[in-house]
Amino acid sequence: MVATDLDGTIIPHGRTISARTADALRACEEAGVVVVYVTGRPPRWLEPVVAAMAHSRVAICANGSITVNLGTDAIVMLHPIPNDVVREVARRLRAVVPDIVFAFETPDSVFVEAGYEAARGPRVEGLAPRALEPGEQLEASTIEELLDDQPIIKLVAFSPGSTPDALLAAGRIHVTDLVAPTHSSPAIALLEMGPLGVTKASSLGDLAASWGIDPADVVTFGDMPNDVDMLRWSGTSYAMSGGHPDAIAAADHLAPPAADDGVAQVLDDLLSRRPVLGRM
Asked: 37-52 pLDDT, tens per residue?
């Protein structure tokens, strides 16, 4: 199995996937190696990715909270965050990060506090879906007003006055007993929170086990703190050059930068040494 992050790994920031990377992923599948996307993106952000490179049958989304079949859009696994946990996380973080604003993702939609979109600013990710127009997403003064019976797959907090690592540190100090805090943005203070105990690694492990694939036979690629557990879990792991120091420290190897088709370079080399990859 090859399990790869998307943004900053096979999709350079602000760009699209290259033909070389798409070809390398296709070559893996043709060689009998399963390709799985493992991303912080919610399912609704996958449509342009699938259109550009339909080389994976399954995607683990929202940092492990939900796994979807890309061919049928069926949910394979779902780990929601309880509503009472969302309320308590919001209460604790507001007490220590005064300018914080929240949003949360469900399998199909996003719900935001008033001022969240203005504070967060425009998206710069490559292969991003169409930006939602005013009125296309539910908004209220606080996220507590938006809670209903829809499963919450990711709670997101943004702080205009913080940094990515500083906001993650606050999350680890104040809410790590309630949720799994992480971040995947290299530039903005966006704290991503999933269900307690659920990470990219845990859901990838469940998926691999269901297919009879051992961790030793998995190669992973990532670039940010939300990839760390996955990089440590797999038998072979590559962090992207220029990635976050935590990801680089967690990985066995360093791949060339995403902008230089780093994943494709590694996969081309592994495929050329077929006996090595053939154990997967």
From this structure: 999 999 989 988 888 8
146 backbone φψ class: left, alpha, beta (φ>0; ψ -120 to 50): alpha
Q: What is the 3-state secondary structure (H, E, C) of the chain?
A: CEEECCECCCECCCCCCCHHHHHHHHHHHHCCCCEEEECCCCHHHCHHHHHHCCCCCEEEEHHHCEEEECCCCCEEEECCECHHHHHHHHHHHHHHCCCCEEEEECCCCEEEECCHHHHHCCCCCCCCCCCCCCCCCEEECCHHHHCCCCCECEEEEECCCCCHHHHHHHHHHHCCCCEEEECCCCCCCEEEEEECCCCHHHHHHHHHHHCCCCHHHCEEEECCHHHHHHHHHCCEEEEECCCCHHHHHHCCEEECCHHHCHHHHHHHHHHHCHHHHCCC
Give the tens place of pLDDT for each residue, 103-144: 999 998 999 999 888 877 766 667 677 666 555 678 899 999
> Can you say whether the dihedral through the CA atoms of 228, 199, 216, 32 is positive or negative?
negative
Q: How many CA atoms lie within 13 A of 57 on its CB side?
A: 9
Q: At which residue do the structure tokens 């999933």 appear? A: 194
Residues 86 and 155 sit within 8 Å (Cβ to Cβ): yes
